[in-house]
Specification:
Keywords: Membrane, Transmembrane, Transmembrane helix. The chain is mostly helical and about 160 residues long. It is built from nine helices and two strands, in the order ααααααααββα. Strands 1-2 form a two-stranded antiparallel ribbon. Helix 3 runs antiparallel to helix 7, helix 4 runs antiparallel to helix 5 and helix 4 crosses helix 9. It is globular.
Length: about 160
């Protein structure tokens, strides 16, 4: 039982470090080239997309200013980079072995990117959500859509096997 808990703990550790900063999970998994590349890419997208400035402004409720400060041509890359780093670190630790386990991560990246694209104009209940909060809200939606598609595919394939 201790080995099973240890493996689960390690997978969770990689997920959490990758959420903290893309590339950290890879570095902890001793995938140094991939880890450094992801950290450098995260840094580049963050700096050129003005992501930190957008985060600070968004946390202060200055959504319109956050929108004006955001370089969307760079920021569009962030959800895919972020979720790929999380998935990759998890997978390198032995996670994601079940069929179609990648789908929630992939759809979270897709829908998160759509959230970035619509963040300057989309209002929810009359409120402009902005470049930080709309992608954050979009990611769980993408996870749910990906999990649902995964479930459907598993049902389809298992019913084919039963025939």
């Amino acid at each position: 039982m201790d080995k099973k808990i240890e493996r689960k703990s390690r997978k969770l550790e990689m997920l959490l470090w990758s959420i903290a900063l893309p590339g950290f999970g890879q570095l902890l998994n001793r995938k140094f080239v991939k880890g450094v590349l992801l950290v450098v890419l995260e840094f580049a997208v963050n700096v050129f997309g003005n992501l930190n400035q957008a985060i600070v402004l968004s946390f202060h409720g200055e959504i319109q200013e956050a929108i004006q400060q955001t370089n969307y041509l760079w920021f569009m890359f962030y959800p895919c980079l972020y979720l790929f780093a999380i998935w990759d670190a998890y997978k390198d630790t032995g996670g994601g072995q079940k069929p179609f386990a990648y789908l929630p991560f992939v759809f979270a990246a897709y829908i998160g990117t759509v959230g970035v694209a619509f963040s300057p104009v989309l209002k929810i209940f009359g409120y402009l959500i902005g470049p930080v909060w709309l992608p954050i809200i979009s990611i769980p939606i993408g996870l749910i859509i990906g999990a649902l598609i995964r479930w459907i595919l598993i049902k389809c394939y298992t019913s084919e096997d039963a025939r």
